[in-house]
Amino acid sequence: MIARACLIGMLGALAVPAVAQQFPTKPIRLIVGFVPGGGTDLASRYVAGALSELWGTTVLVDNRAGAGGNVATELTARAAPDGYTVMLCTIAHAITPARVKLPFDSVRDFSFISMVGSMPNLLMAHPAQPFKNVGDIVTYAKTNPGKLSFGTSGVGASPHLSMELFKTMAGINLVHVPYKGAAPALADVMGGQIPLSIGNLPGGPLAAVKSGRLRGVGVTTAKRSSRAPGLPTFAEGGVPGYDVAGWYGICGPAGLPKAVLAKFNEGLVKVLGSADMQQKLGDQGIDIASSSPEQFLTYVKIEMVKWAKVVKDAGLVGE
Question: How far is CA 231 from CA 81, 151, 212, 280, 286, in A?
């Protein structure tokens, strides 16, 4: 009996590498927690298309919007850990646990396969406003506390928390105007209903600034964006040490076999390193940054600590 049990165990151990070597043998579902048409959705479709071509199988994008991305996140956490259900993780994965109680653990219940890339948020002003850079806003806000407002895609999202961190580091008071999405916030600042708005650089904000309908005041990353090198950073505007980047990555449920995790990571790193992908994602304002699973997990943990403090300082816990 003991010999038979040992044999079964050995066969089971050999089966995992064999399965991983064949992976994938059927379509893969890439869950996206936001509606079709946005920057997140577009990036996921580029990645899905490249992986489909590399592996000779279909990688299907499955949009499951709702609850700030938590519908998609919970679906992924509950999926079978076989590599055939993954999701496009975003910075919300690191922010949301500090704000609300979730039915899953944002670290323990996931496998972190690879980073995809990062992008700055862009602070914009209506052209009629006098603000040319972040320094102008700081100066105005210090002499007129609570009289300057900014619009965002909603409470607790990356653009909103970018400004909460800015307010704390600059020692100023600005009024937040939350919208039900990035598009209406952008529309109102272009229409002059609000003086400032902040959103992810890819898509509408960058296009609005390039067309002259809005003035780019500053990008939130430590370095200027290669997509908009003429726009200064917040640090250049007088807030030293300020650095906020939105990011995308590919996550799966916890417990992915090590060999499957390694093969998925290898595929992602390969497609993200192609000139075609560099061009496609770069045109969207996304700086590609693939990683090992270990590097991605470490980064997420650091981000969770960072945003937990911002959420607490802004009084957003439980909102």
Answer: 43, 20, 13, 21, 15
Distances (CA, A) of 282 to 5, 119, 158, 201: 53, 10, 20, 11
Residue 21 has pLDDT above 70, yes or no: no
Count of C-beta atoms within a 10 Å radius of residue 149: 14
- Encoding tokens for residue 207? 């296009």
Say how many residues make up the chain.
Answer: 319
Between CA 153 and CA 87, with CA 314 as vertex, the angle to 5 degrees is 50
Nearest CA to 78 out of 103, 107, 115, 114 is that of 103
The answer to whether the bond into 195 is cis (omega within 30° of 0) is no
Helix (H, G, I), strand (E, B) or coil at 83: coil
The 3-state DSSP class for residue 111 equals: strand
What CA–CA distances, in Å, run from 181 to 34, 68, 251? 11, 10, 24
Q: Is the pTM of this model over 0.90?
A: no
SS (H, E, C) 193-244: CCCEEEEECCCHHHHHHHCCCCEEEEECCCCCCCCCCCCCECCCCCCCCCCC
Q: Which of 28, 82, 31, 80 is nearest to 54 (CA)?
A: 28
CA 121 to chain centre: 11
Name which of 45-54, 106-115, 151-160, 247-256 the model is least confident about: 151-160
Question: Per residue in 126-160, pLDDT tens?
Answer: 999 999 999 999 999 999 999 999 999 888 889 99
How does DSSP classify residue 68? G
Cβ-proximal residues to 275 (8 Å cutoff; 6+ apart), any chain: none
Q: Do domains 24-119+245-313 and 121-219 have the same CATH topology?
A: yes
Q: According to CATH, what is the number of the domain 121-219?
A: 3.40.190.10
What value does the CA radius of gyration of the chain take, rounded to a whole number of Å?
21
**What are the residue boundaries of the structural domains of the chain, listed by start?**
24-119+245-313, 121-219
CATH class of 24-119+245-313: alpha beta
